[in-house]
Amino acid sequence: MNEIDNIRSGEGRVLLITGASSGIGAATARAAVADGWKVALAARSKDKLDAIVAELGDEASLAVRCDVTDFASQQAAVQATLDKFGRLDAAFANAGFGAKRGFTEESPEHWRDMVLTNVLGPALTIRAVKEHVVANKGHILLTGSTAGTRSLPGSLYSSTKFAVHGMAESLRQELNGTGAHATLIAPGMTDTPFFDNGAGPGSLHPEDIARAVMFALSQPDRVDVNFVLVRPVAQDH
């Protein structure tokens, strides 16, 4: 058999995406459905999710309101996925947000919410999906950042992404030998609602990151793509 024949398609498989209401999450949902996946879209903004489901079709997609900082909410999202599609093969822990640089900027409450969302959130996603993903020899992906590869001045956000990068490697080691896969996707400057005024000219598009996600998901079973770093051609750091 030709090696290309072993590349996995999404046909018959189910992907849960957190932070799916816009940006990278929404773009990944569109790319996954185009490749034959069924997708469960989780986020706090149910109205935005419903609009994406209307676009993708009820047979291929599901909208679930989810607070990633709450484990019961994540468990409910997983159960809703199983109830609708009967299985769960992969999860993309993508929910997160940022903060102004400077350790005297933002409020302590904003910091707390960011740390809980960016660090506890993906850990709880792993906890909620792991049993099902391992049973199907599936895939767990985490959204990191170029900010998790190089410290930025006064950036607590950067610190949260360093934590996610470490979490991804810890996950890889825990899944070793199970047949399940682990991938860290680390975007550079990407024009998403993460930036209030846009990421600026020359930045990546959400679809660029979605293609990286689908690249990792489409590899043969023997391949584990652990780290994908995607930068614009003109990004300095």
List the helices and strands and how they pair.
Layout: E1 14-18, H1 23-34, E2 38-43, H2 46-56, E3 61-65, H3 71-85, E4 90-93, H4 108-135, E5 139-143, H5 156-175, E6 181-187, H6 206-217, E7 227-230
Parallel strand pairs: 1-2, 1-4, 2-3, 4-5, 5-6, 6-7
Helix pairs in contact: 1-6, 3-4, 4-5
Describe the 3D structure:
This protein has helices spanning 23-34, 46-56, 71-85, 108-135, 156-175, 206-217; strands at 14-18, 38-43, 61-65, 90-93, 139-143, 181-187, 227-230. The chain has 237 residues and is an alpha/beta fold. It has one domain (3-230): Rossmann fold, CATH 3.40.50. A 7-stranded parallel β-sheet has the order 3-2-1-4-5-6-7, with helices on both faces. Helix 3 (71-85) packs parallel to helix 4 (108-135).
Class from helix and strand fractions? alpha/beta
**CATH homologous superfamily label:** NAD(P)-binding Rossmann-like Domain
CATH fold annotation? Rossmann fold
The CATH architecture is 3-Layer(aba) Sandwich
Helical fraction equals 40-55%
Termini separation: 42 Å
Largest sheet: 7 strands, parallel
By DSSP, the count of extended strands is: 7
H and E string: EHEHEHEHEHEHE
Shape: globular
CATH class: Alpha Beta
Q: Return the domain count.
A: 1
Residue runs with pLDDT of under 50 for 5 or more positions: 1-5
Mean of all residue-level pLDDT scores: 92
Output the radius of gyration. Answer: 17 Å
| Count, helices | 6
Residue share in β-strands? 15-25%
- Reading side by side through the largest sheet, how are the strands ordered? 3-2-1-4-5-6-7
